[in-house]
Amino acid sequence: MGGHRVRVVAKTLFPFMKFIPDSSAPGTTVTPKDSLDVRMLNTVAGILNFTYEMRMATDDQWGTQEDGRWTGMVGTLAEDRADLSMMLFWSYARKRVIDFTRIYTSEPFIMITHKPRPKPQHLALVRPFSPWLWMSIGVTTMAAGFVLWALQSAWRSVYPHPSPHMDLTTALLHTWGAILEDPIPHLPSNLTGQLVVGWWWVFCLLITATYRSSLIAHLSVPTTSPPIDYIEQLLDLPGATWGIEPGYGLGWDWFKLNLNPRVQEMFKVLRVMNLDEQMKEVLAGRHAFFTWKYYIKTIIASSYTNRRGYTPIHVSRQEFIPGSTGWGVRKGLPFLDPIDRIHDSLAEAGLIDYWLEELFETAMRRTRTQETDGGARRGGLVLSLNHLQGAFYLLFLGYLAAALVLAAERVAAALLTHTPTPTHTHAYTHTAKNIQ
After folding, report:
1. I need a labelling partner for 432 at 20 to 30 A (CA). Which of 46, 133, 379, 417 fits?
2. CATH code, 113-117+224-322
3. What is the pTM assigned to this prediction?
4. Domain 4-107+323-358 belongs to what topology?
5. How far apart are CA 397 and CA 385, in angstroms?
6. In this predicted model, what pLDDT tens digit does every residue of 114-130 receive, in sequence order?
């Protein structure tokens, strides 16, 4: 190409594209920085022997159609104000006004949310079993006490025995005591009662062993809600919000032109904010940020991951757009075919994947001076008041119940007991003195 100067338009999206604007003016020239498209562009320019001048779009957008006119980089190419664009997502509507190079990688459109927070620890004592299991244990315990009382009563009616009769209240207290690991003080004297008590102990042993092991697991690793991977989960979350960066590209079009009624409703309340504001909302919880997978993973790795590799950010499994990437070119560009051949060679040689991985690892190794969370400490896990708050709540609740029962007993005793009047006491004193 004899050193021909190519007009290039770009928008930053690391690790694919990165640059520093030379000024704050619209459509300013930029200074490219190390990124995938810059490496590829330098390789293509070296082989085809051309130079380039890189600029931003005047509105710094990817490009969407408004009132029949294209904005952003797509509009810049369609109006012949640039020859070539850096990474741009393929779409049928865009292909009608510009051409594309062959797809060289993909950048899926996903959403990120805050990882589920641990459930409240004051319920840790009851969380090892499901509500239905707790109900079943309670009913079974009451039934076991009733069976023990009924069998003992039936046995005594046939074979009278001088030992004290076991009433229903005592039988129920015995079965409840056994499941609370308090053994029955006096075994029944007959074989029938002993069998009932023996098998009940076996049942209690299995239940308590299962509960104890599950409780230790819940105290050590607090349970969390399932992460948000799909739009249905997000819409079912009370008070949830969602947003996108103001690039107005293919992600914006996905919301705007989507035929799904639920996505159309989401578009009406879609919050358009910059990256820092989106991440602040995500960290606060109940907010989903719709963005591009490898772009946001690089940011998460460099800015929202601690030295132990923990991050509070969850990347969804669902990918809403495959994000097929190529370079946009103006219609009639004469050197499109040579660019395609070079892109194919880079992809077949594995250089594109290698460069992406290298750029990602570089971001991962950036120095992080502060950790973003407490993280898991080395050594044994220390159970704190946060883990055991349920036990203290239960203890205080028991003390409160005992205090209320005591107060009720005192009031009942005062009402039932006849207290001598002061007159009677005075007469009794004088009578005693006369006797003396």
Report:
1. 417
2. 3.40.190.10
3. 0.64
4. D-Maltodextrin-Binding Protein; domain 2 (3.40.190)
5. 17
6. 998 776 666 777 778 88
